Amino acid sequence: MPDITVKLDITDAVNRISKYELGKLNQTRTALKEGALSTERNAKKIVPVDTGRLRSSIRILHARTDQMGFEVGTDVEYAFDVEARMPYLNPAFQEVKAELIMKLEKIFRK
Asked: 33, 69 in Cβ contact below 8 A?
């Protein structure tokens, strides 16, 4: 009785999936970085200013090593007291949040 074999080569499919996933990851990283930069920009617009030290210190403090998350803030010691009296970081993020969510949904809807 003859042997019957079936060979299936999925290398091309795996490569396409990998490229698709890499593309989605890169788009997500870009959207998150843009969101962090927008949050930084918005916070600098609305932070109360006396000497300008606090405003100039607002920046992206940390990015995760995979760049799938960013932390925007300041290392100025009195920043928390100012945020408690006249919030600037949270409102700055809230302005960006809805647009960021829409961008992320669009990336993963495709």
From this structure: no
Domain that holds residue 37: 11-109
Query: In the chain, how many domains are there?
Result: 1
Q: What is the pLDDT of residue 64?
A: 78
CA distance 46 to 75: 18
Which residues make Cβ contacts (< 8 Å) with residue 27, sequence separation at least 6? 107
Mean pLDDT of 72-88: 94
- Sorted by sequence, the CB contacts under 8 Å of residue 96 that are 6+ apart come out as 35, 38, 39, 42
Q: Does residue 94 lie within any of the structural domains?
A: yes
Q: Is residue 6 part of a domain?
A: no
